[in-house]
Amino acid sequence: MWFKLTLLLVAAIAWGGSAEQARFDNYRVYEVSIETERQLKTLQHLELNPDGYSFWESPVQTNMRLSIVVPPHKFAHFEELSVALALKTRLQIEDFQKVIDNERPMRSTRATFGWTDYYTVDEIYAWMDQMVAQNPTILSGSVYGKSFEGRDLKAIKLSHKAGNPGIFIEANIHAREWISSATATWLLNELVTSSNAAVQNLAQNYDWYFIMVANPDGLTYSKTTNRQWRKTRQPVNALCVGADPNRNFDYMWMTGGASSVPCSDTFAGLTAFSEPETKAMADYYATIADKINIQFSFHSYGQYLLTPFGFSGAPLPSNNADLQRIAAVTAAAIEATYGTRYTYGNSASVLYTTSGSTVDYFVGVHGTKLGFTFEFRDTGATGFVLPANQIIPNAEETLNGIIAFVAEAKTLGYV
């Protein structure tokens, strides 16, 4: 009986039975460079047996960097481990809870939806519905499915005229990456309201498809319960909940950079498309794929502009030279805005291997010619917890990057 009660208690905690917000007082975040097989295997073992540690990226290969959240009771252990393994480490964050506490300085003063704070799924959806109601001739909304917990999966389309080339943007597939949906909503607002000629050109001569919140259950959980939550919320077993939706798409699934361990943050799911959120997005994309010339996935953090493919041993796309040329122009436009420097290149080469991602799926299955991943600000000072006062600067430089991106894509004959 005691064993059964313990399992039920653990399951209730894992499944979010308590809405009490997790705290991370005095937790430190370290960047760690993995250079040897011994270091890799040890960190992989630690991820499987964390005892308070948490990993912001899974250790999947040598020659990669990742961030580890270290609780106070593990400070001495982490120091000993670093010495024993000759790990190169860098302290990113001294007190993770202070970063969380400083994330939303305007939360007590906000009155209406805007871009000086982060919002809930319901608030984002209400804003989307309001935008459609106020602009019915150019905006249309749709519900393309349901999440595991029964939330709507919503898309919104901007179109001034028939026959435009299509641009598809998905955001917040990883729950804790709040800046991604904040930037996506800001971009749509600019496309609808801006008087800037370059922005008006984008709005009038391209059809825009947005999924603002690809993982609404996870985003909700990250706001109510655990700021570090990344995955979906479908239980896998009595101890583990959720899959990484950006490892769950059915293209080269589980061929590198994904985990088969259910409690891992990069768990790819029991099968491809095991998560209702990913299957619904794939089905929705299939209905518009022949209209899409450009596809963007919005993520954080690290300041990267990544091109496909990400799976292990993947060939470069046949148009890789064009992809890198477009990426260079885009990164230059971003940097020209506020000096923010982006690293660009093939995702497996400049970051780490991944498989089952949205970009690889849309390019590999549907033949979308231009598929890119944005990893937004910053480079580690706040990590996934980017202060809300950076939403607008991040969005502004992203818009300038997209303007340059589309112009270069047009020069090369893609749109």
Describe what this molecule looks like in 3D:
The chain is of the alpha/beta class and 415 residues long. The chain folds into two domains: 28-101, Alpha-Beta Plaits (2-Layer Sandwich); 121-412, Aminopeptidase. Helices cover 38% and strands 17% of the residues. It has helices at residues 2-14, 37-48, 75-85, 96-101, 121-134, 178-193, 197-205, 216-224, 276-288, 320-338, 347-350, 358-366, 391-411, and strands spanning 28-34, 54-55, 64-70, 88-93, 139-146, 152-158, 166-171, 207-211, 292-300, 304-307, 343-346, 370-376. The strands form two sheets. It has an eight-stranded mixed sheet, with helices on both faces. A four-stranded antiparallel sheet has the order 2-3-1-4. Helix 10 (320-338) links the parallel strand 10 and strand 11 (343-346). Helix 6 (178-193) packs across helix 13 and helix 10 runs antiparallel to helix 13 (391-411).
How far do the termini sit from each other? 64 Å
Q: What spatial form do the alpha-carbon principal axes imply? A: globular
Number of domains: 2
Mean pLDDT: 94
Q: How big a fraction of the residues is strand?
A: 15-25%
Structural class: alpha/beta
Stretches with pLDDT under 50, minimum 5 residues: 1-18
Estimate the helix proportion, in percent: 25-40%
